[in-house]
Specification:
This protein is α/β, with parallel strands linked by helices. The protein folds into three domains: 66 residues; 248 residues, Rossmann fold (3-Layer(aba) Sandwich); 68 residues, no CATH class. It is built from 16 helices and 16 strands. The strands form three sheets. The protein has a nine-stranded mixed sheet with strand order 3-8-2-1-12-13-14-15-16, with helices on both faces. Strands 4-5-10-9-11 form a five-stranded antiparallel sheet. β9 and β10 form a beta hairpin. α13 runs parallel beside α14. The longest helix is centred in the first third of the chain and has 29 residues. The radius of gyration is 29 Å and the shape is globular. The N terminus is likely disordered.
Amino acid sequence: MEGGKRHWEENRLRREVGRAASDQVDARASTGADGVPDSRHAHTTEREAFHCSVWRSAIGCARTAARRSYIWLSGQSSPHRLSFYPALPSSRLVKLEGQINQESSWNSSTRMDFDALVRFVQEHFTDGLALVIGSGLSAAEGIPGMPALATHLSSNAGVLTGPDATLWTRIKTVLDVEGLEAALLNHPPSNTLESWIAKSTCQLLIPKEREVISAVLRGERSLRLTTFLARVLKPVSGLPILTPNYDRLIEVACEMAGFHVDTTAVGHYAGAFDHIRSYMGSCRGIKVRGRTTVLDHFPRAIVLKPHGSFDWYQSGNEARRCSLDVDAERLMITPGINKYRAGYNAPFDKHRDLANDYIKRAGRLLVVGYGFNDDHLQTHLEKRIQDGTPTLILNQAISPRVERLAEQSPRCVCLSKPDARAGVAVVTKGGRLERQGPDLWDLGVLAEELLT
């Protein structure tokens, strides 16, 4: 059935060429008694010869398209509409399900059209893009997430004594039901308990981070973000990446993709935080554009971490960035209500302010593995999305909060994993669909399938 569809266009073009050739024969027959073509038919013969050559070229294009196996979307009203996107294996094509109303900005039809979704995704990654990356992307690479951290804390809580042990017991009673973030919000930890949580977090996550980065440097694997960055436009002004994650997979992924990483710190071993000097670190010269002289930068990513990082340390009265694993107090904001107090200290405050400023100025947003449960970012982020900033959200599991945001925002598309099968579930304003095939909610798969 599909084989016939793929050759339908080629057969139609052949019929047109046949008609054009037949007309040429008739034109040649319209000659005078002396064998000279009748002048009344001369212009017709030339025009049809031109048409014949055009159709031959068109047939060549059709054959090329057939060889490249461009896909036919099921359910289209016209069999001659070819979709000019790389083909998926025919075994993975299914009939699309779902309806969408006229309010959706990425599809003008009343039918949920996967072709339109592909165009939305491919046109989304242009200048003005800002990325928000949550723990979901790190979890996909092998870094334990919040549930694993909660289990780790509970397993090692035996070292706690006195008031901290009592407080942890209260936290533990709601931990399994509410999750770690909510439990620490409802039962704020003491300074000593918070310090223990930070150290325990490092004990769990840093060895896993080391395993992943070691495999990357040995050439045994590639990070999803690296795959994505290699296929998108590198903005002249830099690509802002905002994250609450402590790990450094984003920094590694950016450098593997050829980006200079601007962390707002100057140096790698005892780097002071100075976002102006850090900005200049990616400058490779000057350029003249028209009558204006501007700085010329290497491709760069501005990585902002409002919750801190494994390589941020307290050094006396100031913060320093050190890429080495040293015996000093790390600067990390743990989950819970205390993070709002700590967030006003340097360098957390500067990273939060810069992150919110990039969100306000973004022309479009890509949100990956982020659960929208952090007021440091989501207050401005949700407002921009609700106001109509084009947004693509990629989450393996979609929470009710994210689902409502996608349904109520005029230019937001959320891709997530369907229940119990491979493929993608799409939620947007006025409609939804599920489609078997590639896991397009996965950043690496999305890049390989749609951004080649």
